[in-house]
């Protein structure tokens, strides 16, 4: 499905900062880990990256990445061009649960005030990052499962224990190993509790030829004018599904009440019968949609459990040598549309802070604490956004005409530039963290005018139930 991946030539590599003699050790070669490796390499650090999987995890369906993350590709000529080649720019329709189109086509490029939202086949995005990293001379070390983290403040090292007992160290260790990271023990002392949201999401992606073999499916989902892809969002009572047809792949998702079939794992495959059990209960669910579901090849359907976690403000270990990043620091529900974007923003912010510490002769642990300070509130606001979006989607009185289902991305989300932000706020943050005045810090990358108030999922739901103000009541435009 991915075709041949062109290779970057040495002349397309970015200008690299002078070597820093500092090693950044990363656990996890997901989108967050790979981007961290790239940005740290560009800024002159030595990079090592350990990955549990035996080989590249080029799996998954669609992932949406916002301009706040991919604006950084200005520093990467090959990535910049390749990203434009592989992105899909579908036209969007809102439909009811019978598949009748209610509004659209909406140009996905028009849903953001500035910049562009990139919709990618995750395997292609992953492969693009891996290819660039290889061209930088960095190879992912596969089959290396990290089972523990430690730090030695005296020697100024962070380290990981790899399954089998080997210890590997770096000047800084980045835990980018996803929602089940083992880094919480060192960083927070206790794991951030995860609990089921009560729903799971069935997700599949496969070659479009398989889907187009069925006449009813072919007629229902032609390409749009100019060969553009089409994405449909189906909303109805207790129904939330998406269908994406592009020139070479088909993706569908179905959010469902979880009766114990789903797992929080990207390798948890289920049979299409599981999906058909749910669609059988949707009144007037069209036959062509069931036919499409039945065409899903074996081993292509994942049932991902939608888990809730309260925000975790502490991403940095006590000695400042280990930091959590991406999903390891903050898990997202797909309804936030922000998991990939925030992992990349984290990567850019962290690499920038490490580089600034190097050039301004500040200690590396301070860089980690500043990065944590610059990032946590923004990420936490977006996590809250995802919780409420999901809550709005799966209700008995789901009305497809309700504006709450529309894709909304405020300026504060899309116009942020994590590299510029870290550079602009660095000196001020050095003074603030150095003097232990973090409580006085005000971030400028959150909704305008917001003064962040810590929240929990229970508190958020209860406050909204009582009609009280919450973290979501700032200016989100
Ligand atoms: C196989 C896979 C498929 C996905 N498919 C989709 C999708 O279709 N749509 C979507 O929106 N999101 C998908 N995601 C999630 C999405 O990519 C992430 O939520 C987001 O990009 C944040 O990235 P991350 O790097 O923080 O975490 P992840 O992308 O989860 O990456 C974590 C990486 O760490 C590795 N790892 C885990 N434990 C260890 C360990 N103990 N030691 C070493 N390495 C470890 C994992 O194998 C993985 O490569 C998928 C993730 C994976 C791993």
UniProtKB/TrEMBL annotation:
Q: What's in the keyword line of the UniProt record?
A: FAD, Flavoprotein, Monooxygenase, Oxidoreductase
The coenzyme or cofactor needed here is: FAD
According to the record, the residues making up region (Disordered) are 1-20
- SUPFAM superfamilies xrefs: FAD/NAD(P)-binding domain
Pfam families reported in the protein's UniProt record: FAD_binding_3
**Where in the numbering of this chain does the FAD-binding domain appear?**
22-357
Q: What is the superkingdom listed in this entry's lineage?
A: Eukaryota
InterPro entries in alphabetical order: FAD-bd, FAD-dep_Monooxygenase_BioMet, FAD/NAD-bd_sf
Which Gene Ontology MF annotations are present? Answer: FAD binding; monooxygenase activity
Q: Which family does it belong to?
A: Belongs to the paxM FAD-dependent monooxygenase family.
Protein name in UniProt: FAD-binding domain-containing protein
* Species of provenance: Zasmidium cellare ATCC 36951
């Amino acid at each position: 499905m991915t075709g041949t991946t062109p290779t970057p030539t040495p002349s397309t590599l970015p200008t690299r900062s002078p070597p820093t003699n500092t090693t950044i050790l990363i656990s996890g070669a997901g989108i967050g880990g790979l981007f961290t490796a790239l940005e740290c390499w560009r800024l002159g650090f030595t990079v090592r990256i350990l990955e549990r999987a035996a080989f590249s995890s080029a799996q998954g369906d669609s992932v949406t990445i916002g301009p706040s993350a991919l604006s950084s590709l200005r520093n990467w000529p090959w990535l910049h061009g390749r990203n434009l080649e592989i992105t899909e720019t579908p036209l969007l329709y809102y439909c009811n649960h019978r598949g009748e189109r209610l509004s659209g086509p909406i140009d996905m490029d028009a849903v953001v005030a500035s910049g562009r939202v990139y919709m990618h086949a995750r395997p292609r995005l992953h492969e693009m990052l891996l290819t660039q990293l290889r061209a930088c001379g960095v190879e992912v070390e596969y089959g290396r499962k990290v089972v523990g983290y430690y730090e030695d403040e005296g020697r100024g090292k962070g380290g990981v224990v790899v399954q089998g007992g080997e210890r590997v160290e770096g000047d800084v260790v980045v835990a980018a190993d996803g929602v089940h990271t083992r880094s919480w023990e060192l960083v927070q002392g206790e794991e951030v509790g995860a609990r089921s949201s009560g729903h799971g999401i069935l997700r599949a992606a496969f070659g479009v030829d398989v889907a187009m073999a069925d006449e009813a499916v072919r007629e229902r989902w032609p390409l749009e004018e100019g060969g553009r892809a089409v994405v449909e969002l189906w909303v109805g009572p207790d129904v939330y599904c998406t269908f994406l047809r592009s020139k070479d792949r088909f993706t569908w998702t179905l959010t469902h009440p979880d009766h114990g079939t789903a797992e929080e794992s990207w390798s948890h495959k289920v049979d299409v019968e599981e999906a058909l059990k749910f669609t059988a209960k949707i009144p007037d669910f069209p036959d062509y949609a069931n036919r499409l579901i039945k065409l899903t090849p074996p081993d292509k359907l994942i049932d991902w459990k939608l888990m809730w976690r309260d925000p975790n403000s502490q991403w940095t270990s006590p000695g400042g040598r280990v930091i959590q990043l991406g999903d390891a620091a903050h898990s997202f529900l797909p309804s936030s549309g922000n998991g990939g974007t925030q992992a990349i923003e984290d990567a850019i912010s962290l690499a920038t802070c490490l580089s600034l510490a190097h050039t301004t002769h500040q200690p590396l642990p301070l860089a980690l604490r500043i990065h944590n300070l610059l990032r946590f509130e923004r990420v936490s606001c977006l996590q809250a956004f995802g919780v409420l979006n999901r809550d709005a989607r799966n209700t008995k009185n789901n009305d497809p005409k309700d504006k709450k289902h529309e894709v909304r991305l405020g300026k504060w989300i899309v116009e942020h530039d994590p590299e510029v932000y870290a550079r602009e706020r660095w000196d001020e943050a050095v003074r603030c963290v150095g003097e232990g005045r973090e409580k006085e810090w005000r971030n400028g990358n959150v909704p305008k005018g917001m003064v962040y108030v810590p929240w929990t999922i229970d508190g958020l739901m209860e406050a909204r139930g009582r009609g009280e103000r919450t973290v979501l009541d700032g200016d989100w435009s």
